[in-house]
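Many introductory courses stop at the sequence. We go one step further.
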Amino acid sequence: MELGTGPAGDGRARVEGAGFDIGAALSGIVLTTDETEIVGTDVYGQLYRWERLTGRRLVGPVTLHDRTVWGMVLTPDDREVVTAGADGTVGRWNRQTGEAFAERFTAHAGPVLGLARTRDAHELVTAGRDGTVRRWQRTTASPLGEPLRGHAGAVRAVALTPDEEVIVTAGQDGTVRRWTRTAGTPLGEPSRGHDGPVQALAVGPAGRDLASGGLDGTVRRWDRGSGRPAGAPLVAGAPVRCVLLTADGEVTAACSNGTLHRWDRAGQRIGAVLAAHTTAVWAMTATRDESELLSAGWDARLARWERVTGVPLRPVRTRTRIELVPRLEIHGTTPF
């Protein structure tokens, strides 16, 4: 094992054999529809692509933004990557080549910190350090409706419910807020519970449950309808950078000290804390069947895990090509 050197300074050992070196501090990862490819963006505004099973790099680095990419989505056909950057712009790019489909457009007066899309990708939703949430028509970059205002300070994360009726946001002010997507009106009172900024959001597959991760080192669960807490806080003990909710009710949190934490629907811990990376984990996703978890850290590693067991999945070796040659047969006596 390799001793951890993350910000926590706890000397925790990273799990040996977990993932592969990628040479980039990633800020986001997504999977293509067929799940054969990982698309990633980094803190320098660059794009990469890898084969998921082997870790073989397909493309990258390709520079997209002048600064960190904090949001990324793929269109349903996987043809287009949409990115949102700390330079305040949103861009559209060919996934295969990294070439721009259009000029980047300015979305916020300051860094864009979150990005979501509707299922058909016709509409984008962005969250900014300027304290606003904005909706855009993807191909024309036309604004849809008025900006959503309510957070006191930066809006650090944004998500859509599966039915696309509700926008969920999380802010520097420690609140989680719900909005009607088309009208842009607030739904109920803000959800309060975190002691400090909220940096991560997740919506459950059924759309009933919300989860938020905060700088206070906790994950909070919320009822979508009422905005009230849905259980006691889940304590990770380090700032939470990513949160994932799965269909079985499990919550996974990734932290600034490189650890992964899991809890069941009842809020009970599952297994031991997983020392996944040696520095902050800023990106996490799962396969469609939720059997595999992927995490990316600022230690320039991308790791794959069996979600239920926490066992690391090593890169699959590429096939060895064997050339068949005719067999030599000798009949009769020989001089040797």
